[in-house]
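[step 3/7] fold_predict: job queued, chain A
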Amino acid sequence: PGTVSASNPLEARVLVIAGGGTCGAGLTCAAGQSCVAGECQNPGGVDANHALVLVALDLIGVNPGRLAELLESRYGVPKQNLIVSATHAHAAFRSIHLFNAPYFDDRYSGVDPYETWLEDRVADGVGEALADMTPVEVATASTTSSLGMNRHSGLPLSPEARTVSVVELRMPGT
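[step 4/7] structure written:
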């Protein structure tokens, strides 16, 4: 068989955010937390610094169930701390059942399914992100945009729908 290549390969983007969990030397924990061995803990000794994992996939859609289980078992990330989105890329594999479109995952056929392979790779990426965490500063801003309209009514967007919010994470001092 010939080789297969892609001019625009699919990507998974992973962002892991954790913060507020270090204490001591002038750093204090949030109200109701205690400082134990330099880490903030919630009542009952529960770590207050659980990571929040954001994953964006170049797929038509995604079912995050198994991925959430992988992250919890591998890295201790609570299932509720995973947010997964899909870019809704129509040129990507059909990774979910979507109407009558071909579906490239059959967990019952005995063949290694694409979705399982993908979840394993994304979990590996989360592990890399966890191992490579660095302190950042967080900045936010919002503005309004006059672009766009309601595609169903043809009317301009409401003021709430025109709001564009941005969160910036940057290296300290930059």
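[step 5/7] annotate
The longest helix spans residues 114-131.
The chain has two helices and eight strands.
exit 0
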